[in-house]
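Why does residue order matter? Because the sequence determines the fold. Keep that principle in mind as you read this record.
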Amino acid sequence: MLQIKNLNIRMKKDLRELLRDFSFTLNAGDRAAVIGEEGNGKSTLLKWIYDESMIEAYAEASGEIMKKNLILAYLSQEMTEAEKDMTAYEFCCAEPAFLESGAAEIASAAAPLKIPLDMMYSDRKLASFSGGEKVKLRTAVLLLKSPDVFLLDEPSNDIDIETLEWLEEFIKNSAVPVIFISHDETLIENTANVIIHIEQLRRKRVPRYTVAKMGYKQYVEERLSRFANQEQQAVNERLEEKKRQAKLQRIEQSVEHSLRTVSRQEPSKGRLLKKKMKAVKSMEHRFEREAESMTDFPESEEAIIVGFGDEVAVPAGKTVLDFDLDKLEIGGKILAQNVRLNVRGAEHICIVGRNGAGKTTLLHEIAEALLSRTDLRAAYMPQDYAESIDMSQNPVEFLAASGEKEEITRAKTYLGSMKYTEEEFAHSISELSGGQKAKLFFLKMILDENNVLILDEPTRNFSPLSNPVIRAILKDFGGAIISVSHDRKYISEVCGRVLELTGNGLEAR
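Structure:
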């Protein structure tokens, strides 16, 4: 049993509290999903549980954790540059459990993930692996540890739909408890039986957490119902308060008028009126005390993303892309042949395929063809944000490239509307969470009025609370979208055409 008592976590740079008096017990059979908006400390919590020293560079924590003799298996959201520079075999050997395992045990760990056994012995650098291949390899190594608890930070990132379905079954049927973070609503809906919701209220000044022993859909429904009831009760109490105050004011004015007009020859009447005024004042004080204990309006942290304007569009008959590639290859290896893609007007296209099929490589080729066009305003959102962003810049510098006062003001206004704090305006982009970086990309595309979006796993870093908003914006986008994704809700709600990349090119699904 893993137990946390009275955990407090505070950021060192801006002293923002992420968690206050957080307590939680993970029991056998628990499959706990940690949810919350971008930058709220979800990954920080998992790091602290695994190894408290992992957050010391940027946060300070106090509290107790009981995990004595427990073997924890931790899958981080991102690999370090040092890890990417390793060969697959070097990476595997860095885990003692791999060295202690026999060939049959290693094969058993690799088989359900459908990765070839020789991948674990490969001398290929991990940097050359696809995002999904990296996740699969790392997961296979974790399985060899035979852990008591799994800590999985975005395990669904970059894996194909077949492996996503395996991951669902793995979490649902895990013999040991699991704490995981995921952007994939379908995965959370199908697996979680405990929800840990981390929030930041009042412009990120007040942290709040909720632990609910229920599934995700039930949690969302009960939360919305509770908030609606609380809001209605608060409204009703304030209406009653307004009526009482109006009645009290009328009585007080009547008594004051009578006191002003009472004759000195009627001392008894004057005394009665003064007594009545005292009773009115007493009633006023009682109403004030009751008003202090009225039901508060519900506080919640809602996902706020600004949208594209209606004027951002592509004419229906315009040829956005006429792409023809005889061979798609990487490192001399041919991944696909005869790749053809024609896009006209405001089509929303998603490219799917197995991990390692070359989807990201293909999207990069498409981006090169489109970004140089002057008749379109194209933008490319890569899977690895560092390809397109100078991580040493702060958000304002990224959005206001000219440095002009008007552009800086506009950038700050939009950042504020998306719940970036004044302190975060000055943070380097490298210090932001993956979801906050993704929001910056979207904001940049909106401000630049891009009418063609080339998106590699666009929803991969947004919270399950933000993703419905992102999907709605992209669904209503009047321009063209060419994307790669394994997010099942994104594919069904946003994309009108789905193509699978195979060795023979792009095939309709």
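The two ends are 45 Å apart (CA to CA).
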